[in-house]
Amino acid sequence: MTRRFLILPALLVLAGCRPALPPPPPPDPAVAEVRAFLENYFSVWSANNMEAYGSLFAPEATVQVAGKGSTLRSLPLGPFLDGQRAAQAARQMSEAPLSVDVRPSPDGRAAQATVRWRLVDGERSETGWDHFTLLRRDGGWRIVHLLFYQE
Asked: Is 71 left (phi over 0), alpha (psi -120 to 50) or beta?
């Protein structure tokens, strides 16, 4: 009986001697920057501020639209922005992110972001995905590639 009382405290002491887990790494500031950039992206598009929307893209950016099945359409930036202007002029739509996953590069120069979104166009609502490749330029982030599709 006495031995049992000695073993239990010894086990408790040993359990407390395990090395502590290292603290989690601090959050990457690039993730917060990209999230703010994407919030702005959806905000200016929904506000029909096409000048601000266009400024979020690098001039040489490419845009791809994946259709149902295996169709893929590539658009230069100019025609893509013209189409966005025309669509927003014809009817006021809004789009908001539902989920955002950001993965910055180790050197902080680039980032990949995947956003699930909801588009509201009057009574119609649809969801889809944006896949962004971003590059740090001119003191901020710019979209260099956008692939999007609806679910």
From this structure: beta
- Reported in sequence order, the residue ranges of 26-77 that DSSP labels E, i.e. its strands, are 57-66, 72-76
Instruction: Quote the CA–CA distance of 4 and 9 in Å, as a whole number.
Output: 9
Contact 143, 56 (CB under 8 A): yes
Whether the full predicted model's pTM is greater than 0.90, yes or no, is no
Q: What is the chain's pLDDT, residue by residue, as a tens digit (151 residues)?
A: 555 555 656 555 555 556 778 877 777 888 999 999 999 999 999 999 999 999 999 999 999 999 988 899 999 999 999 999 999 988 889 999 999 999 999 999 999 999 999 999 999 999 999 999 999 998 899 999 999 999 9
d(CA 138, CA 61): 15
Distance CA 91, CA 74 (A): 24
How far apart, in Å, are the Cα atoms of 119 and each of 7, 42, 69, 92, 97? Answer: 64, 10, 21, 11, 9
